[in-house]
Amino acid sequence: MPSAQQPVLLFDAECVLCRRAVRWLIRRDPHARLRFVALASPEGLAIRAALGQGANAPDSLIFVPDWSRRLEGPWHLRADGALQALSLLEEKKWALRTLRLLPPFWLNAGYRVVAALRRRREDARTAVPFAPAEAARILGGAEFPAPRP
Hints:
Blueprint: E1 8-11, H1 16-27, E2 35-38, H2 42-50, E3 61-64, E4 76-77, H3 78-86, H4 93-100, H5 104-117, H6 124-127, H7 132-135, E5 138-139
Parallel strand pairs: 1-2, 2-5
Antiparallel strand pairs: 1-3, 3-4
C-alpha cells in the first residue's frame, strides 16, 4: 500500500474509456506520484460506502488525495477528481489552467455526459489490457469484478 499523503484515483476497471484514461495518466506521471484502485475492489467499495451515498455513490471516478485517510476524506468526485489527478502532471499544467476557466457546472455536466456514454459491450480487460508496469501502479489489481454475463 502507498505511504501517507499518496494520492489515489479510483476508476471503473470495467470501462474501456476509464482504463484508457488511467493508461494516459500513468504515461504522463514519470515520478509515479499517482496510484489507482478499481472502484469494485474491496478498497473501492469501502470508500464508496464511506461517502454515505449508498446507490448514488459515484461509479466512475473518485480522487483520494491522502490514501492514509481514505475512509475519512476529503474526496473529489467526477470532474473535480479528474482535475485533481491532472494537477499532479507537471507537463499538463496548461490543460488544468484552461479547464479551470470553465464553470464547475459545465465541467460536471460534460463529465456526466461522457460517463453515461462510456460503457461499451466489449470486455474492457481484453480491449485495454494493462502492461505489467502499468498494472504495478494499480493497488489490488485492476481485474475487479468478474466479467458481466
